[in-house]
Design goal:
Helix content is 26%, strand content 31%. By secondary structure, the chain is α+β, with helices and mostly antiparallel strands. Strand 8 and strand 9 form a beta hairpin. Helix 1 packs parallel to helix 4.
Length: 152
């Protein structure tokens, strides 16, 4: 397994263009003049990912924009949106290239074992620049912490 990338505040956010849950292309550059939350999660409709997504849903008005990225297919993301009335962008990264560019895919501990997978991570991107990078976050209570950082 390889060493994980870690982005730092002040770095340019890696560009991406990915398919959303409707099969449309969405790019980070679509939000060039905004402060946007970009978060990575392992899999739609799992307990932790659902908790985190619903917390973003309930607070989405507090942010300029929210983008959730997982390796799920657009069809699975569409079901996730429908099942939980999600009101923000859900993007599919099946090749995990965007995740790797952000350091959100790589080595992590899972039940005491080192495995390779999606690292639950959140970034505040301000006009294309990393303002805050949070790795290995816990789903429960995370959106509240992001909101405090966003308001600061």
């Amino acid at each position: 397994m390889s060493e994980n990338v870690r982005l730092e505040p002040g770095q340019k956010a890696p560009a991406f263009t990915l398919s959303n849950d409707a099969g449309e292309q969405v790019s980070l550059s679509d939000f060039a003049d905004q402060r946007v939350i970009v978060y990575f999660y392992p899999r739609a409709n799992t307990p932790g990912c659902t908790k985190e997504a619903c917390d973003f849903r309930d607070n989405v008005e507090e942010f300029d924009a929210v983008i959730g990225i997982s390796p799920d297919t657009p069809a699975k993301l569409a079901a996730f949106r429908s099942d939980h009335n999600l009101n923000f962008h859900l993007l599919s990264d099946p090749e995990k290239e965007t995740m790797k560019a952000y350091g959100a895919f790589g080595e992590k501990k899972n039940y005491g074992k080192i495995v390779e997978g999606v690292i639950r991570s959140t970034f505040i991107v301000n006009k294309g620049v990393i303002e805050k990078a949070m790795y290995n976050v816990r789903a429960t209570g995370h959106v509240g912490r992001v909101l405090k950082d966003f308001r600061a």
